[in-house]
Specification:
Largest sheet: 3 strands, antiparallel
Shape: globular
Number of strands: 6
Oligomer: single chain
Number of helices: 3
Strand order of the largest sheet: 1-2-3
Structural class: alpha+beta
CATH architecture: 2-Layer Sandwich
């Protein structure tokens, strides 16, 4: 599955990846220790690559592939 990231936001338990097609994928924050232990300000300071396939948090040196995140998900998991 391929998707284009347009935004990332967080709540107390999840990282939510908003996709260009209007869907959103929720990932347990516990899957990403660097993000889980980061401050809200550090989490909000991220970049999306030009091709919308990578997420990067410079202060945390955390880099995530959108394709890799979405690959194990099926169509029923995305909202």
């Amino acid at each position: 599955m391929k998707g284009a990231a347009v935004n990332v936001h967080f709540d107390a338990r999840f990282m939510v990846l908003d996709l260009a097609d209007g869907r959103a994928a929720h990932f347990p924050l516990s899957q990403f220790p660097a993000l889980a232990s980061a401050s809200p300000m550090e989490r909000e300071h991220f970049a999306i690559s030009i091709d919308k396939q990578r997420l990067y948090w410079p202060e945390l040196q955390q880099d995530l592939s959108v394709t890799a995140l979405l690959q194990p998900l099926d169509e029923n998991t995305l909202h």
